[in-house]
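Protocol check, entry for the methods section draft. Step 1: assemble the input record (protein sequence plus ligand SMILES). Step 2: submit for complex structure prediction. Step 3: store the structure tokens unaltered in the notebook. Ligand used here: flavin mononucleotide. Step 1 record:
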Amino acid sequence: MATIVPLFLAIPLFMLFIGPHLIANRVFVAPMAGVTDRPFRTLCKRLGAGYAVSEMITSRPDLRDSLKTSKRLNHDGEAGPIAVQIAGTDAQMMADAARYNIDKGAQIIDINMGCPAKKVCNKWAGSALMQDEALAIGIMQAVVAAAQPHGVPVTLKMRTGWRADQLNALPLALAAERSGIQMITIHGRTREMGYGGVAQHHTVAEIKSRVRVPVVANGDIDSPQAAAWVLKQTGVDAVMIGRAAQGRPWIFREIHHYLQTGEHLAQPLVAEVKRLMLEHMQDHYGLHGPDVGVRSVRKHLGWYVKDLPGGLAFRSAFNQLNDAEQQLRATTDFWDQLAQLGDRLPDPVLNAAETIQ
Ligand SMILES: Cc1cc2nc3c(=O)[nH]c(=O)nc-3n(C[C@H](O)[C@H](O)[C@H](O)COP(=O)(O)O)c2cc1C
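Step 3, stored output:
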């Protein structure tokens, strides 16, 4: 006979700390370059994400004053702890980057060892570091030595390995713990997989069973049930959500609620999503400025509306608008029209079925 395990047993009962910082809950938003800027992180935290890490910031000092990096360094009004992810290939440069970001307000430093992008990998940063364990360990030790005097914990985000026959996340996790790393996040894919295939969470489970520091599972977690399943199967301390939060930042409260109660929240009210989206857009223009902002906000808008009735047509029209006021007005009109179909957002599954017919 099947054993019925109460859902809450999937959630570890002790509190979760990263160094001295008590973390609000076990559902995190993943760092995504070009997506999780300060406005989006703030929104995710307001809607239930327990923790967020900045988009990766290069460790190169010559790029510190570039517009892109300075925007990534912006944490104005963001609820703490402020976690900044750094990427690079040189241990001393990474240590300097840690000190620089701590000086700018970082309370946690995260080392990027997961990014598969060529731009990063050609320079042996991101997931490419996993191919050179000695260099990876040297970087971890140097960054921990730089951050420790400031009482700032250092965390690591990596993949399962470079490719299927080089799955070295476990030895690296053990080395990370010995180096003083205080939390390890694993995206359950190799570098070779990119974003294809399916995340392999059993590697994460093995690592969780072998280290004492908190372990976070990441990859393909796109629903409350998936989050509960991964927590239960792997015993990890938290789950991290990336792409599923694009255009759906309320996924964090949905997951949190399900983990607490075993019940699903109703779809959000159209009026609430309208307000959230308009606030998000204003905040986005505020950070990126009117010229860049009207262009870069388009991807967020596309994600918000992609599964909604009339969403694709609206997105095409919106992408022609080059003025923030026009974008805000068009968005308001879109939501007002949607509100005529019902108070709540249509169920995405039902809507997909409608689209197919
Ligand atoms: C657009 C995009 C940008 C990303 N940028 C970063 C980054 O800056 N740092 C990082 O560690 N991972 C980055 N990632 C990887 C995500 O943090 C995450 O590991 C990956 O998307 C798998 O999680 P998911 O299936 O929940 O999306 C990025 C992913 C995407 C889709």
